[in-house]
Every structure is written in C-alpha cells, then in structure tokens.
TrEMBL record:
This is Uncharacterized protein. PROSITE patterns: WD_REPEATS_2, WD_REPEATS_REGION. It comes from the Eukaryota. WD repeats lie at residues 150-192, 252-286. Residues 9-19 have a biased composition (Polar residues). Belongs to the WD repeat GAD-1 family. Residues 444-463 have a biased composition (Basic and acidic residues). Residues 1-36, 429-466 are annotated as: Disordered. SUPFAM superfamilies: WD40 repeat-like. Keywords: Repeat, WD repeat.
C-alpha cells in the first residue's frame, strides 16, 4: 500500500497548493457557490410500463437514454428526435423471460452491456438492431467445482459495468461467488476471475461490483470493488494477483443484507455504498478499515437495484427511498412515500433536499448527468421521472418539450344510405353461387380422374386390376367368352385318347426303361408309420 499512500499524499499537497492560490477570489462568489441550487424545479414523467424499472443509463453526451425493468422490455429514447409525447424509438426484449438487472453504455457509447437474471451477459450494438449481439459470455460448466476453471458464470448474474478506461472490457458479478472480468478481444473465456470469501474463508455471493471511476488526478485507477452478501466491501488492485484483497471492510453493512450499489467519487478518494439494511454510507479509501466517514440510517430500501450517485461537482450524493410495505411499516405513523434524497457529501446524517414521489411509488435507480445537469430516476410503477431546471439544465429532455407530436394523416370519411343487411345477404348469395359453379367445373375444383369402367387404355389400368398381374389376367379373361353349360370333366377327358396315342412329356422318358406303368400299392396307416424314418416321426 506504500505506492498508493505516496500517490494520495502527493495529490493532497497539489490540491492544497491549488486551494491556497485560489483563496484570493471574491467572497461574493464563494457565498453564491455555497447556496445549493438543484435542477429540481421542473420535471417530466415518462411511462415505460407497469412493472418496476431496474435499469437506467444514458450515453456520455446525454443524447440517448435506455431503460429496462422486471417485464424484460428494453426501451431506447433519443432526445434528438423525440417529441413531447416521449415515446421510445425502439422496444426490444434482449433476454426473453428474464428480469433486466443492469444496462450500461460503453465509454464511447458504441456498445451496450445487458445483464439479466441469466448466467450470460450480452453486448449489443448501439442501435440494438440487425445482428445486434456482438458478444455473449460463455456459460460455465455446472459440474466443475473450482470457479477458476470454469469459462464463465454458472449462476444468476447480479450486476455488470463497463471499464471506464478500456472500451472493450467489462465486469460482471454473480451468485456463484465470483467477479469476472471480460474482454471482447478474448472471447473464449474471462480474462480474470475473482473469488469473494467470507470471514470464515467460505465463498460468499457478490451482489454488486464497480470499476474505479475516471477522475482528474488519476489515483486508484486500477482498483476493483465488490459488495458481498455478508455485508463486506472488498477491493482489489489489478496490478496484483487477486488472491488477497487490497482494502477490506468486513462489517460495512449488516450480514445477509444486499449491498445494492457501490459508487466512486470523481476525486477517486471516496466510495459510497447503499444496502438493503436501509443505510447509506461514505468511505474514505485512505482509512477504509477504520470505518465510514458518515452514514445515514432509516432510508428504506427494498430493491436490490437501488443505487447511489454523486453530483457532477462531487459535492452531493443522491439516492432513492422505497415505500414501506405493511409488514415493514408496523406501528409507525410517519409519512410513507417514496422519495428522491439529496445529501451533502460532508454530512450524510440528514438529507439536504427531499422530493416526494406521487402515486405511492418507490425510487429505484437514480443518475445525475454531468453534462445535462438533469436528474433521472426510475420507480417501481414503471415510470421515469426526469428533473431539470430551465436555467441550469441544457439539452436532454429540454429539447423535446417544444416538439409537438406528429399529426396522423386524416382520411376523408364518406356516408352513404345503403342497407347493409341487404348488401350482406346479396354478397353471401353471390359467393355461394360462385362456389357452386366452381365445384361443377372439373378444372377449377381440381376434380381427380374418374376411374375407368372398362379395360385399361391411354396408360391407365382397368377398373378391377390394381396390379399388373391382375390387369393381364383380367384382359385374358375378357378376350374369350365361356359357355356356362359346358362340363369341365368332359372337356378334359376328350384329350385323354390323344395323350395316350401321341405322348409328348412324361411317357417318352420311360419308354425304354420302364414301358409298363407301375402304381403304388395301397398301404395301411400302421405300415405307413413303420416306413417313416425314426428321426422324422412326430413325438407324442
């Protein structure tokens, strides 16, 4: 940790020098800067669906916005072409039947990372159309116990994010107790696998993860942080093996409570965490193991995707507050509504500003865009609420307010005094007669050939013969007509005298050797059995 401390202290000295040089500014300007002006004077409500919105992302320039939720729909909005109806230009389901947990633009906004309740994350192109899938993470082998030997996750994903420095690298965490780093240049398997361990040395589920954000001083750019189900926050340095953590706080949040979000400040020295134990905490990386700098309790959170975000000037934090259910409410009589909370970074004990949500909705995802100076938030009833200030904000949703929805082309309607029942009956009768005529026409009805009623001709077999043998026999029989009164025995015996006088087949063969015919003598049944060979006798 010496290299990290030296870098931090050098940056502190530089900041102190800059602060001393700028201390001679006018006191009036300082007083104006101390007055918090939040872009919350106006708001716009956009309807996504009816289920909870768990994903929200915008590109770096703030020209596009993507939302996703429990219904599996991903809607894409373009502020440059969208009118005041606020309709998305594309709606798809990238993961059929799966809850969307994280959607994020890459650093150059040409790719989109989609993490769902599946084991495989997807990377799609900017338009999410055509051959949209650029990369799909491989699936890990479910029969391999060692997580380092599997090519991918084998349990449900919880979160994913892009690297702020490398446009081809992203990170995912899963219920298989690992954090995996992926690269589009190496698609066969992950480039690194980090196993999260509990205090007892057992594997523990990872609920969220984050890269260190880009900041001015360039401090801690190699750090990777993860929040675990045992309440610990574990941080690794990528320049070292991922065997041991570089920074570790075992009891950052309550055990068996989901750490729903981790977010680095823009100066790179502080880390904010949000958990379902209803707390928001701020940590200093220079004294991470000593405990949090400040915290706020009793901020109800019942969604695993509730996040925390820093303001563009790095002075404030924003997060969402969930509405309590009847079980969580108990005997409390306090106001029970969802809120958007804004905290001062130096003191988190009490929010600086609270914005209540209508329709009994809970705030899940929040984002304060640094260029637009607009605050985006999603709710559990499928709405996106965008806060802005007409004087302090620019572009984004402001460019859509004055665009009127396109009018649909109107067709000239005409009226006619027509008896529809009569027309309908005539139409039915005409259709019936037309079908009847078509049935009588052998060509239109495609009637099969009629079977022949005589001998075969023109390549067709006769009526009675389905085989060639039957056909030939039938034709032979049809050629000669027989008299039913003829006696077959007399017809055969009239050839007996001719056969004796002019033998042709059998008699000439025995004329010299055996001229006299010898017939077999009559044998009784008993004698016949004796003549049969023993092995041919039938067994009783």
């Amino acid at each position: 940790m010496d290299y990290l401390e030296n870098t931090i202290y050098d940056d502190q000295n530089t900041e102190q020098t800059n602060a001393d040089s700028s201390s001679s500014s006018d006191s009036d300007n300082e007083e104006e800067d101390d007055i918090p002006v939040f872009p919350t004077s106006s708001s716009v409500l956009i309807q996504h669906g009816t289920k909870s919105l768990s994903c929200l992302t915008t590109d770096l320039n703030g020209t596009r916005m993507i939302t996703g939720g429990y219904d599996g729909d991903m809607e894409m909005f373009d502020f440059g072409s969208m009118d005041s109806s606020f309709k998305p230009f594309r709606t798809i389901q990238p993961c059929q039947g799966k809850v969307l947990k994280s959607i994020e633009y890459s650093s150059n906004a040409d790719m989109i990372l989609i993490v769902s309740g599946d084991c495989q994350a997807k990377v799609v192109n900017r338009e999410a159309s055509g051959k949209q899938i650029i990369y799909k993470c491989p699936l890990g082998d479910g029969y391999v116990v060692d997580m380092n030997r599997t090519k991918g996750h084998k349990s449900m994903l919880n979160y994913g994010c892009w690297s702020p420095t490398d446009k081809n690298e992203f990170m995912t965490c899963s219920d298989d107790c690992t954090i995996r780093l992926w690269s589009l240049n190496n698609r066969e398997q992950q480039i690194s696998c980090i196993r999260t361990k509990s205090e007892q040395g057992h594997d523990v589920r990872t609920t969220t993860c984050t890269y260190h954000s880009i900041h001015q001083n360039g401090v801690n750019t190699s750090l990777v942080a993860g929040g675990c189900l045992d309440g610990s926050i574990q941080i690794w340095d990528r320049r070292k093996p991922f065997v041991h953590t570089t920074f570790l706080c075992r009891h950052a949040h309550q055990n068996d409570e989901i750490i729903s979000s981790l977010k680095w400040s823009y100066d790179g020295l502080h880390l904010a965490s949000r958990s379902t134990d209803h707390t928001l905490k701020l940590w200093d990386i220079r004294m991470f193991e000593k405990g949090c700098l400040s915290s706020c309790e009793n901020i109800h959170n019942r969604f695993a995707m509730t996040n925390v975000c820093f303001s563009p000037n790095d002075r404030y934090l924003i997060t969402g507050m969930s509405k309590k259910t009847n079980v969580d409410l108990g005997d409390e009589t306090d106001e029970n509504i969802g809120k958007l909370l804004i905290f001062d970074r130096l003191d988190l004990h009490k929010p600086v500003e609270q914005i209540s949500m209508m329709n009994d909705s809970s705030v899940i995802r929040t984002f304060w865009h640094p260029k637009l100076n607009q605050i985006f938030c999603t709710t559990n009833n499928g709405c996106i609420k965008i806060f802005y200030d007409t004087q302090k904000s620019m572009n984004g949703v402001l460019s859509c307010l004055n665009r009127q929805p396109k009018k649909q082309k109107q067709t000239n309607d005409f009226y006619a005094n027509i008896d529809l029942d009569a027309v309908k009956s005539n139409a039915i009768s005409s259709i019936t007669s037309r079908h009847r005529k078509q049935r009588q026409d052998p060509v239109q009805s495609k009637r099969p050939e009629v079977p022949t009623d005589s001998t075969g001709h023109d390549g067709r077999l006769g009526e009675h013969g389905s085989t060639l043998h039957q056909h030939i026999v039938k034709n032979i029989e049809l050629r000669k007509v027989y008299d039913d009164k003829e006696d077959p025995r007399e017809e055969i015996l009239k050839y007996a005298q001719i056969a004796e006088e002019q033998p042709f087949y059998v008699t000439p063969a025995y004329k010299e050797t055996q001229p006299n015919t010898i017939f077999q003598a009559d044998v009784d049944e008993d004698e016949e059995e004796e003549l049969v060979q023993p092995w041919k006798k039938q067994k009783n």
